[in-house]
Each structure stands twice: as structure tokens, then as C-alpha cells.
Specification:
Blueprint (H helix, E strand, L loop, with lengths): L1 H8 L3 E7 L6 H9 L6 E7 L4 H12 L4 E5 L5 H11 L4 E6 L3 E2 L3 H11 L3 E11 L5 E6 L10 H6 L9 E3 H7 L10 H12 L1 E13 L13 H19 L5 H22 L3 H13 L5 H11 L8
Parallel strand pairs: 1-2, 1-4, 2-3, 6-9
Antiparallel strand pairs: 4-8, 5-9, 6-7, 6-8
Pfam families: Glycos_transf_2
Keywords: Glycosyltransferase, Membrane, Transferase, Transmembrane, Transmembrane helix
Organism: Aequorivita aurantiaca
């Protein structure tokens, strides 16, 4: 009885769901959140400027759940929509879900136990499993074991180690780190978890907490897989981190970020551009397109190339 009381009257959790011009999967997403075994939640559905008909459908779907509040705003992108939701939210803990994905029914219950008893962790994350467009489990998991638990700043400099829909984060973490960078259209979650991991330890549950739907409109599928696109995104991520790090980073922090950046570039070149001539031509392309300033690239090479070790 006491356990049931805690699930219904414990700390409020705010769940922010962003949507844009899509309603087909929304009911399933909201239903997976509303049916959580931990009951004291609020769902904030942030509609990022959908067309009139779809916005009406989204609003009606939200009304089916007593814990759901619908907000319509002008289109400004997912990062800004998440920020809008954070500002409207009231919970001490905050989680995010996309309008086409699902949560495991006990996700919040498992996460809040850790946050309530282990104050050294800023957030709790876990594994995802991919599901088909029809919602069928595929058995394909992504966990990032060994790289998303504890002090993981360096791990997140190398690669994004958590899906955006898995973490449950303390509000005071957001108060210290700040909001999502609205200048990103892709990669804003990676940018954000890097900043969080600079200050706070992550706790990773080695089990599936959420399900990511794969279909032609999945946001993660729009990320560029071209070599040039990967350079562009990583440079933007580090520019954002450098701006945020002013007044926060010590000298060794700056050097670590720069070193990992060089390791990332060298690995991409080694894996995709065999031979010196191809590497040289591609680097010139980076310079002419103003993706990486030539002097900065040369600085990284001179300072860190002799220390290069492949990063996992």
C-alpha cells in the first residue's frame, strides 16, 4: 500500500513530447507515458506549428489523457520546442519523448528510485530497442555499455551515448547547464548531453527503457552520413561547446575537447580517405567551404597529432 501511495503522490515528473505535422503515432506515444507504473506525472505536448487539421487532431488526442496538456506554438524546431516545454513544466524531474516513440511501462519507476536515493547522479538513462513502423520489436538494442555510466564527459565528446528519449533528468541540472541550443536542427541532444556530462555523473540502467520507431520520417535518419556532413556537425558541436565553456572550462578541459576533436577528424580521414593525396584534397575542401578554419586545423595537427590514440 505504501509503495502504491508513493507511485501516485511522490515527486512530480514532467514529460515533454514534441510533435510537428504528424498525428499517426501520437496516441501510442502518449499512451505509453500515461500508463507508467509511476503515476505522478504531467505530459506537456508541444505542437511546433503543425497545420490546422493536424494540430486539431493532436489536441484531441491529448484530451484523451487526463495528465496531458496541449500547447501550440509557431514553428521553431525541436530544440526550441523542448525549451518551451521545460519552461512550462512543474516537475522536479524531466523526461523527453518523441511523438512516434514509446516508453517501457516501468521506465519512470525504475529511474526515479535511483534519483531519489543516489544524489550524485544528475540523470538516469538506459538502453533503447528499435521497433518497426508498425510497433513490432526488432530485437535490435543500443545500450552504449561502458560509455554512459559515471563520469562520461570524454565519452560524450567522442560520440552521443544516449537516445534523447531515455534520460530522466533533475531540474537543478537544467538550471545549471541551461536549455537546449535552438540553433541546431540535428544533433541538439548530443550537444546537450555533452554539457550535462561536464558537470554531472550519469547513471545507466542496463535494460531497455524506451523504444525507437524506425520509418522514413524518423529524425535520426535525417542526420547526414556523408563524410563532409559529419565534419560539419562535429565542428558545430564543438563551436557550441566552446561558447558554452567560456567561464566554465579550465585549461585542461579546453585541451581535452581539442584533443578529442583532432582524434575524431583523423579517424574520419583514416577510415574514409585512403592515401595522402585524397586526404589533402578533402582537407582543402574543408578550408574552401569554411567548415574548419585552416589555422585552427593546423594548430590541432601540430599540437595533438603526435599524441593521437584511436578513441572508441
Amino acid at each position: 500500500m505504501e509503495e502504491d501511495k508513493e507511485k501516485n503522490s511522490g515527486t512530480l515528473i514532467s514529460v515533454i513530447v514534441t510533435t510537428y505535422n504528424r498525428s499517426v503515432y501520437l496516441y501510442e506515444a502518449l499512451d505509453s507515458i500515461a500508463k507508467q507504473t509511476y503515476r505522478n506525472i504531467e505530459i506537456l505536448l508541444i505542437d511546433d506549428g503543425s497545420t490546422k487539421q493536424i494540430a486539431l487532431e493532436n489536441k484531441e488526442i491529448c484530451k484523451k489523457f487526463s495528465v496531458c496538456k496541449y500547447y501550440y506554438k509557431e514553428n521553431s524546431g525541436q530544440p526550441d520546442s523542448r525549451n518551451f516545454g521545460i519552461k512550462k513544466s512543474k516537475g522536479a524531474y524531466i523526461g523527453f519523448c518523441d511523438d512516434d516513440d514509446l516508453w517501457a511501462i516501468d521506465k519512470l519507476e525504475r529511474q526515479i528510485v535511483i534519483l531519489n536515493t543516489q544524489n550524485e547522479f544528475g540523470l538516469v538513462t538506459g538502453c533503447i530497442e528499435y521497433i518497426s513502423h508498425a510497433g513490432m520489436k526488432t530485437g535490435i538494442l543500443k545500450c552504449h555499455a561502458g560509455h554512459n555510466h559515471g563520469n562520461v564527459f570524454q565519452d560524450f565528446l567522442i560520440k552521443n551515448r544516449t537516445a534523447s528519449i531515455t534520460p530522466l533528468i533533475r531540474r537543478e541540472v537544467i538550471d545549471k547547464v541551461g536549455l537546449f541550443n535552438p540553433n541546431f536542427t540535428i544533433g541538439e541532444d548530443w550537444d546537450y548531453w555533452r554539457k550535462v556530462s561536464f558537470y554531472f555523473k550519469f547513471y545507466a540502467i542496463d535494460d531497455v527503457l524506451a523504444f525507437v520507431r524506425t520509418h522514413e520520417n524518423t529524425m535520426s535518419r535525417t542526420r547526414s552520413t556523408t563524410l563532409l556532413g559529419r565534419f560539419v556537425l562535429y565542428r558545430k558541436l564543438n563551436q557550441s561547446l566552446f561558447e558554452w565553456g567560456n567561464g566554465r572550462f579550465a585549461k585542461n578541459d579546453w585541451e581535452l575537447v581539442e584533443y578529442i576533436e583532432w582524434c575524431y577528424y583523423r579517424r574520419l580521414l583514416n577510415n574514409n580517405m585512403p592515401g595522402f593525396k585524397k586526404k589533402f584534397v578533402f582537407v582543402l575542401l574543408l578550408f574552401t567551404k569554411n567548415i574548419i578554419p585552416p589555422l585552427y586545423f593546423i594548430k590541432l595537427f601540430l599540437k595533438y597529432n603526435s599524441r593521437y590514440k584511436p578513441q572508441v
